[in-house]
Specification:
2 domains
Amino acid sequence: MKKPQRKSSRAARAAGAPLTVSREELLVEGSDRTFRTLVQGLLRFSAIHAAIRDEYASLLKLTGQQYTLLLCIRLLCDAGTVNIRTIADHLRVSGSYITVETKALEQLELVQRERSSQDRRLVSLSLTPRGIALLDSIASLRQRVNDVEFGCLSKQEFKLLVPLVERLVQSGERALALQHYLSAHGMDEGVLDPREVAIA
C-alpha cells in the first residue's frame, strides 16, 4: 500500500499560514510576505540604532535611557517649555518613569528644574551647562556615525521618510490601543475598527 505523499514542511507552512494583514495596500499578489519583511526590517534597524545609542551612552557613563532623555529635553527645549508631561508624551512612557530618571540626572548635575514664578506648581526642565557640554563632547562622533547610518537616503527619500515615520508612530499607537482593548474584553480579531478605539 502506497503512503500518501507529504508536502514539504515549508510548503505546508506557506499554504496554511494565515495572513497577518488584510488590507490590499499591504498585500503583494495576495501575499503578506513583503509586509512581514518590512516589519522584520524595522525591528532589525531599531535594534541596531539602540546599540549605537547605548555605545554613545557608555562613552558618557550614562545608561541608554538617560542619554535618550538628555537628547529629548534638548530637542523639546528648542520648541518651548519642557516638563515631565511633555517628555513622557514625546517618548511615550509614563510620567513616573520620567520623574525617577530626571531626578537621577539632576543628581549628576546634567538636568535642572525651575519653578514658574506665576504658578509654583509648574516645573520646567532643561539641561545644565554641564549636560550640554557632555552631549557636545561626542558631537563629531555622532555626526560621522549618523552620516553612515542614514547615508543610503537621498534628499528626496529623507524628506518623504520623516513624515512617514511619524504617521507610523500614530497608527502604531492606535494599533496598541486596539490590542489592549481586545485583550481586555476577550474579543476575537476583526471585531472592531481600529479607528473606533480612543487613545487615552
